[in-house]
Each structure stands twice: as C-alpha cells, then as structure tokens.
Amino acid sequence: MLYEHPTYRIMGDRALLVELGDRISPLVNKKVRELFLCLKNNRVEGVVEAVPAYRSLLIVYDPLKITLSALKERLKKYHTTIDRSEIPKPRTLEIPVVYGGEYGPDLDWVAEFHRVPPEEIIRLHTGTTYRVYMIGFTPGFAYMGQLPEAIATPRRETPRTAVPRGSVGIAQNQTGVYPVKSPGGWQIIGRTTLRLFDPEKWPPTPLEMGDLVKFLSIKEEEMTRWEV
Fold first, then answer.
1. 2-86 topology per CATH
2. CATH for the 92-226 domain, from 2.70.70.10, 3.40.50.10860, 3.40.50.300, 2.40.100.10
3. pLDDT in tens, 2-18
4. Distances 3 to 14, 16, 22, 65 between C-alpha atoms, Å
C-alpha cells in the first residue's frame, strides 16, 4: 500500500529513512524514484547522499548544515509538489542471454520444479518487461521484477561461493544479472556477455532505478556479437 504521508525513521545521528509504502509494488517504487530524482535535481545543502530502495529512500545528511526538522520539512514539500514533467521516462535495455547448459546450470532444476519444459521457462522469462527496483548487493546488481508467477522460484538451499560475471538468476519473484563474479544463492538460468558494471566508465552501470529490461534468448555462437 502506498502511504498517504511518508513515514520517517531516524537511522543514527546523520541518516533518515523515508518510507513511502509497506510493500514492493511498481507504484510505491515509482514514488521513491520521483522523490529521489527531485532531491537529486534540487541539490539540498547538507544532503550528502540518497540511496533508493524498493519502498524507501535512505538520506545521509550533515547535521551541521541542515537540521533533521528542516530536512523533514523539505521532504514533505517535495512529496506534495513533485513536478512529474521533470521526471525522465524510464529507459529500456535489452539483455541478450544464452540459456541453459554450462551458462545456466539451474535451468533444468527450475523446469523440473515447475513441471514444465526448460523452453517454457525461457519463454516466460523473455516474455516479460522487468522494472529495475533498486541497485544493491554488489556494484551494479539490479533487482528486477516481477517474474511471472508461473516461474517464481525459491533460492538455492546452498549458495554458490562464486557465480560468474554475467550470470542471469531468478529468486522468488525477482530476476537479476550478476555484474561481477561473486557469491550468490539465486537459481542461475543463463548468462550474458553484456557488461553491467565497469568502474572505468561513468556511470559505471547502464542500469538505474526505474529502468526497464527485456531479456533476449540467443545462441552460444551469437555471444561474441553482443560482447562488450
């Protein structure tokens, strides 16, 4: 549910958590994005950083430059007066994926779990446009939803200690791409050569909160054509 008024939670002596709803939903996340961009575009003195999440916005501030009460008043004003015309439309990124085999070692397990052929998992995964709800876990890791209910799948009972860069995973009703080699407990169904985190570039990731993503099924021999 979207809150009529934001809820504020004090996080130590220099951070404030602004909650805009009580559940994960596109509407709540859209409001978080709007408030985040409004705060970013207006450059409030004393605000050091703003970190958006599914249904909340964490604001780190300098209490020597702005008081907590002044920050709350500014946020209340933005929440009620956001100019939607100044909020950019979400971008859409296509991510090519080789599904199954050595690139998607969990695809067959996921198919067996849902009692459908692997091709049906691929069809459903590529047939949905996903919203980037937030970036977290590792640099550039985009939490995306919602997965079709027909392929919502639990995490692995035992996480892997090393998941290759570019691995495409699903867990519960989310999907995502591991932008760097890291531990992980999601079910890996494919892999992309598209680089989703590069510290030598700015911004270092092509995805940000609010963007839309479409996955494309490609053959292994096509990977080099998409490689970046």
1. Gyrase A; domain 2 (3.30.1360)
2. 2.40.100.10
3. 888 899 999 999 999 99
4. 24, 17, 8, 29
Residue-level pLDDT at 82: 76
* pLDDT averaged per 10 residues in sequence order, the chain, 228 residues: 88 95 90 91 91 95 95 88 75 96 97 97 98 93 95 96 97 96 97 92 90 95 72
